[in-house]
Amino acid sequence: MGLKQLVKKGLGEMGFNAGGGAINWFPGHMAAATRAIRDRLKVADLVVEVRDARIPLSSANQDLQPHLSAKRRLIALNKKDLANPNIMPKWVRYFDSCQQDCMPINAHSKSSVQKLLELVELKLREAISREPTLLVMVVGVPNVGKSALINSIHQIASSLFPVQEKKKRARVGPLPGVTQDIAGYKIAHQPSIYVLDTPGVLVPSIPDIETGLKLALAGSVKDSVVGEERIAQYLLAVLNTRGTPLHWKHWNNRRAEGIQYDPAEKVEYNLKDLRPRRMKPPNASSVLYIEDLVAEVQHALYLTVSEFNGNVEDESDLEGLIEQQFETLQKALKIPHKASEARLMVSKKFLTLFRTGKLGPFILDDVPDS
């Protein structure tokens, strides 16, 4: 119960309301996009609903579910490279038990998207025999990778099909909700197949606080809505209640082998450059620097949990542990003790390591009993 109590405790401070009230971030263009999506759903032959593989249920747009379930639909669980590969097959089986087609994908991988397109074509085979023009719609909440998927589809389609018009790429932005306009792309001829890219539409009300926190942790809600510290606290609470840091005992085998970056080189690699779209891959020395940083973080959290005498199911014990971990992380992340906004700096760096998969693959949602 410790995690649930801790989550409930912050209700009044976080921009969410206990009864699943309005979230403080819902751009006007997204409300208009929701109406446009409903209109276009009527003519869509197939819908690809993109979700975040780390939150297969929490990243569903609940407002549109009744409309989507009435269509020929394929759920694409994107960012599978960041999701726990041991748990992912259980999610696929769960969706199978719901008679729902589902495929884990990596939108940046050509072979992964190729498999998705093959399944899309298979699902459309019935319609292909009847219709000269077919529409495929891509929908999902912000920042699940819809635009990245559209761009990969274009790269593949240009070599597969004789496309008539000049192809236009979907606009990809670094923040949730940035793909502004709904645009159609012709990806095949005879029959003509169009993929319509739609801005992600996050539900204006979130059913419970934990769903909101999961969306924030995965990056589908702007950090400023919830606050980086609150999101980092939630991540630590999840890791602690699952006992994840105890699996990080063998924290730095590479250092034991005597391989490490040379601190004399004064590596100044910014963790922000790890994020997609930054297009600044780390050099060899920076890779070692990041590995050492991750090892320090994992070892620090392992020590705090292994030496913890309290009960993670108890709210106050869990709060105390998280406070201690913030101090430990500040040292591990080499943030000056007297730095102003030190907790915010700790939170941002810690969240970047999680979101880029450096702390390992995770799935935050629990598989429902089928």
UniProtKB/TrEMBL annotation:
Q: Which CDD domains match?
A: YlqF (cd01856)
Cellular component, GO annotation: mitochondrion
**InterPro entries attached here?**
G_CP_dom, GTP-bd, GTP-bd_ortho_bundle_sf, P-loop_NTPase
Report domain CP-type G positions: 34-204
One Pfam family of this chain: MMR_HSR1
In the record, biological process GO terms are: mitochondrial translation
Q: From the Swiss-Prot or TrEMBL record, what is one GO molecular function term?
A: GTP binding
Show the Gene3D superfamilies listed in the entry: 1.10.1580.10, P-loop containing nucleotide triphosphate hydrolases
Q: Which domain of life is it from?
A: Eukaryota
Q: Which UniProt keywords apply?
A: GTP-binding, Hydrolase, Mitochondrion, Nucleotide-binding, Transit peptide
Question: Which compartments does it reside in?
Answer: Mitochondrion
Q: What is this protein called?
A: P-loop containing nucleoside triphosphate hydrolase
Source lineage: Eukaryota, Viridiplantae, Streptophyta, Embryophyta, Tracheophyta
